[in-house]
Amino acid sequence: MKTKFRNFFVYSLAIFILSLFFLALNKNQNYDTKNLINKEISNFSLKSLDDKTFINSVDLKENNFTLINFWASWCAPCRLEHQNLIKLKDYNVKILGINFKDKKNHAIKFLKELGNPYYLLAKDEAGKESVKFGVYGIPESILVDNNLKVIKKFIGPLDDNDFKQIVAMTKK
Fold first, then answer.
1. Which of 36, 39, 56, 128 has the highest CB neighbour count under 10 A?
2. What pLDDT, on a 0 to 100 scale, did the predictor assign at position 73?
3. What's the sign of the alpha-carbon dihedral 108, 110, 113, 115?
4. What is the predicted pLDDT for the residue at 2?
5. Cα(135)–Cα(4) distance, rounded to whole angstroms?
């Protein structure tokens, strides 16, 4: 009798665990780009890179368009995309740079070396705030309008085609 009960328990537990696994596979993830489009980003408050102020979602509402760019000095693809961020300064888009899991002095050196395309600079030292944006790796960028609605999410380094697409989407 104990063997039958034990077998029943083991099979029931296995079915329960497999059910949870398959339910989790079908769950929408934060980084599912299709889910983010036309949705408003969550309110946020991040410490500025210079530790003097806080940057929050309200700061972005004064811009027609903001590109939120997650980057780090240690990130080789971030270095590759940087030239396209610099070029965007001449267009109708402001860039909020969120420095991801980096050391402040390394980030400052990176910007001195390659130029600073950001109108606002924030930091996410632990990487926890970036998860709220659906970011799971860097570089990633999110283009939002002045209502904080996501227009497009770019995963990976911005290339020339992404640059052209951002310029086209932000012309008004």
1. 36
2. 97
3. negative
4. 65
5. 48
Q: How far apart are CA 97 and CA 68, in angstroms?
A: 6
Are 132 and 36 contacting, i.e. CB atoms less than 8 angstroms apart?
Answer: no
**54-56 and 45-47 beta bridge pairing:** antiparallel
Domain ranges of the chain: 34-169
Please say whether the beta carbons of 88 and 107 come within 8 A. no
Query: Which residues, listed in sequence order, are joined to residue 124 by a DSSP beta bridge?
Result: 100
pLDDT tens digit string along 63-89?
899 999 999 999 999 999 999 999 998
In degrees and rounded to multiples of 5, residue 132 shows phi and psi of -65, -25
Do 62 and 91 form a contact (C-beta atoms < 8 A)? no
The Cα 118–Cα 21 span in angstroms is 42
Bridge partners of 97, per DSSP, are: 69, 121
Q: In what order do the strands lie in the sheet with 140-145?
A: 120-124, 94-100, 65-71, 140-145, 150-155
Helix %, strand %, coil % of the chain (to 5): 40, 25, 35
Q: What is the CA radius of gyration of the chain?
A: 21
End-to-end CA distance of the chain: 76
Residue 138, helix vs strand vs coil: coil
Question: May I ask the CATH architecture of the domain 34-169?
Answer: 3-Layer(aba) Sandwich (3.40)
